[in-house]
Amino acid sequence: MFVIVFKSVMKYFRQTGTLRLVLGSAVFFSSLFTFTFSVHSACRDPDVAHRSFMSLAYAADVDATIQYFGHNFFLITTSKGTRIVTDPLGPGWYPNPNVAGDVVTVGKEQYNHNAVQIVLGKPIILRGLKNYGAGWNPISTSIKDTFIYNVPIHQNAEFIQGIHGSAFVFDLATLCIAHLGDLSQKLNEQQIKAFGKVDVALTPIGGRRTMDPDLAREVLAQLKPKIAIPMHHRDSPYLVQRFSAGMKTQMLQSDTLTVSKSALPLSTEIRVLQPRGVMNYR
Which of these ranges, 117-126, 127-136, 222-231, has the smallest mean pLDDT? Predict the structure, then answer.
């Protein structure tokens, strides 16, 4: 399987002119696939929500609570209480939350993504990049009830090719949540396969350093999540409107969304969260 994947990666990168990055990404995907394909995963099993003839009471339970603090900074709390903090944002952008976590993921080594010191509770820190962002750092680990792995991406693609970034996937056994980081390009086949069957996609739409709203919609068409939550949009109503145009959208008057596998929509819908200190979208 590795040989097939490696040849596909080589062909893709020859066509896109980034051959110098092939070996790094091939090794990354090899180590990722070796682990993730060998475990039970909601992100890879389309029928996991219906397996074992779950009771109606269980099916109605909340599988995750997602709280948005601005930029790429979220707190995901599982049904068993595991607290996952993503890309903690340094002081000066939004009011600093009093947030504790069991684990913190960092997809970019800059102060607006890696302010791990603000997270209480002595969390485990999972960094998707190594050597201060010079290379990808493969992650595949279980933290309590959640399996966490990362997917290599590129950021700042509008300006320069080859800047490393990291997306993260959180497998909650019944629910699959993907944090797309500062993704700035459409996904290739290996990335799509690595993400798997995404239920909720935390999606950057700001442009310049990340995807703009139009490209973000193309990536949603690739991943086909049931819910997409825009992030990295600098509270711009224009960017949010471009991203959500023509799609069923809920503009929530809250920074928090509860998600149940059994209540997911049939096709992709947008949920816009409003962190504390945000401008009013309406």
Answer: 127-136
